[in-house]
Fold this sequence. Notes:
Number of strands: 0
Radius of gyration: 19 Å
Helix content: 55-70%
Structural class: mainly alpha
Distance between the termini: 26 Å
Amino acid sequence: xxxxxxxxxxxxxxxxxxxxxxxxxxxxxxxxxxxxxxxxxxxxxxxxxxxxxxxxxxxxxxxxxxxxxxxxxxxxxxxxxxxxxxxx
Length: 88
């Protein structure tokens, strides 16, 4: 919880410090498109690099994350645990 709060505050600070400069450089619509672009890129990076943990128990998550947090383009990890004989 503390990490997410810190990241939120840092992100808000970065936007607050750069917002007027970006608007001056790109204009109003360009500035908002600039930040929207970062949001879209961030969404796809998270989607592609972080493993899915929906319906995965804590024990299964430990096994899943032994290889590290970043796991590029893996399919549904729940399927892999079911195929290993473990139940949900």
